[in-house]
Amino acid sequence: MLARTIMVQGTASHVGKSVLVAALCRIFYQDGYRVAPFKSQNMALNSFVTRDGGEMGRAQVVQAEAAGIEPHVDMNPILLKPTGQASSQVIVLGRPVGNLSAREYHNGYAQKAWEIICQALDRLRRCYEIVAIEGAGSPAEVNLQATEIVNMRVARLAGAPVLLAADIDKGGALAAVVGTLELLPEEDRRRVAGIIINKFRGDLKLFQPAVDFLEAKTGIPVVGVVPYFEGFRVQEEDTVSEETLRRSRTSSRREVEIAVIHLPHISNFTDFDPLEDEPDVNVRYIGKGTPLGRPDLIILPGSKNTIEDLVSLKRSGLAGEICRLAREGVPVIGICGGFQMLGKELADPYHTESSIPRIEGLGLLDISTAFEPEKVTTQVEATVTGRGPLLSPARGQRVVGYEIHMGRTRLGPGAVPAFHIHRRSGEAVDCPDGAQDEQGLVFGTYIHGLFDDDGFRRQLLNALRLRKGLAPLEQGGTSHLEQRERDYDRLAAVVRGSLDMGRIYQFLGLPGPKTRGSMAGAV
Fold first, then answer.
1. What's the Cα-to-Cα distance from 37 to each of 31, 101, 117, 119, rounded to whole Å?
2. Region 3-26: what's the mean pLDDT?
């Protein structure tokens, strides 16, 4: 028997579809159902590598975690990673197939991708009881309705009732709902079973006339008004949130300041969420026009277009500031593309990422990188081998993470490896990773997810504290992974308390929770 389906679409991008689907996944999981997420096509630079080496969008990883299952590329069969103006690297079932322009993709490849999407969804529906589907952008983009493969076409394929979500925090939510419905073909409009008003701040009683208006105007029930939640984190899908950027611009009395360079094509920025959750750490995202100051640590993150982002760093003057502070003893860490930028040279002879064939790096590490057509996507287990004030405290410690890169980096005589990889995708290997300088104050690595490790993270932060003459802190009682699970439960509690779950189960054709109590009050 095929799984029942329900779909969340939005009046626009960034209305909270990903988080709402994660909440539904957690609720159905708490209620005793085997549930999986699905998004046919995701455009995002924030990705993850599965156990078998497939690359998929981070949002569906979060949703899978909320559902209590392991991520699989069938949950996001098509991933588009923007590489430049109107072009993207196309990832199909976890593997890159090439770079395509928007015109090439929509006018040609998208219909080929549709067959893959149909097969992936069918496989999920044969393994689970419920599939919670996420749309993309808006279904009312009339210029794309004939060729789209992510909104109403998926709803028709799955026979899914659609919940239409609008972000009231941005204003204009009522007009967005009515306008979206007016622009849909009648067949698709009938698929919209309920309306969700998301990110509400204020008195619900005062909002009731708006609810009454929407229901009278559209003939569609408002199945919930979800409040703007604070105090817990659910990872963002495809960019650092405006709220995070605003928060990073404000002053903080926390003792350790970390500056993450906000690159134009920043990727895998969720690497730094665990640092933001530390009680003694203030993470600031430094972009154009934001003063760098003198932080305790500078981090260069991953990038989908490393060479172009390095050019941007140089033009903005940030590259010079970073090098000056590094010479003055401020520690610098590079992750993936950021690691490559720290070297002496980056070459792209095959134009894998950029039209620029060669560029000088920041020169903070004695390394050189060349981009190659074949992409490395793998989960890894490694040991810290670096020395110096940053890595010596964690030397010999085992860490786990994942690699996503197309560059191959060679170390010169002035650099030594920072880590040693023992396993890739479960198979034993014996290879160095990353590099550090002779003083041990600058290091880089290809390993994403390092800061998820509670021990490594706290040892690094304590090394920074000691450099400031501060006493080290003990590792907290709740691990990062445990906190993430608690946050999923808190999200589910907020959304469960805001939606008419009885009606949503009616849309699914299911009687309701299978488990007694169903954890409805879990926090």
1. 16, 28, 13, 15
2. 96
Helix H or strand E segment including 39: none
For the stretch 75-88, pLDDT in tens is 999 999 987 667 88
Residue type, 445: T
How many angstroms separate the CA atoms of 93 and 54, rounded?
7
Nearest CA to 84 out of 45, 47, 49, 41 is that of 45
Question: Residue 303 and residue 332: Cα distance in Å, rounded?
Answer: 16
Q: What is the pLDDT of residue 239?
A: 60
Examine the residue annotation and report whether 118 is marked as an active-site residue of this protein: no
Which burial class, exposed, middle or buried, applies to 371 when counting CB atoms under 10 A from its CB (0-12, 13-18, 19+)? buried
Predicted confidence (pLDDT) per residue in 450-500, tens digit: 999 999 999 999 999 999 999 999 877 678 889 999 999 999 999 999 999
Radius of gyration of the chain (CA): 23
Residue 517, token pair as written in the block: 């109590």
Q: Which residue in 106, 336, 422, 431 is the catalytic one?
A: 336
pLDDT digits (tens, 9 = 90+) for 215-258: 999 999 999 999 998 877 787 665 655 555 555 555 577 999 99
Which residues, in sequence order, are CB contacts of 427 under 8 Å at separation 6+? none
Q: Measuring CA to CA, which residue among 95, 452, 467 is closest to residue 278?
A: 452
Question: How many alpha carbons lie under 13 Å from residue 426 in its C-beta half-sphere?
Answer: 5
d(CA 261, CA 250): 16
Look at the block and give the residue holding tokens 């094509």: 265
* Residue 61, both tokens: 């990883």
Q: What one-character DSSP code corresponds to residue 106?
A: I
Closest CA to 377 of 454, 268, 456: 268
25 noted as active-site residue: no
Question: Catalytic one among 72, 265, 405, 448?
Answer: 448
CA atoms of 213 and 222, how far apart (whole Å)? 10
Structure tokens at 337: 């593309």
Q: Whole-angstrom Cα distance, residue 444 to residue 327? A: 16
Lowest mean pLDDT among 45-59, 116-130, 234-248, 353-367: 234-248
Name the pTM for this structure.
Answer: 0.91
Distance in angstroms (rounded) separating the CA atoms of residues 445 and 447? 5
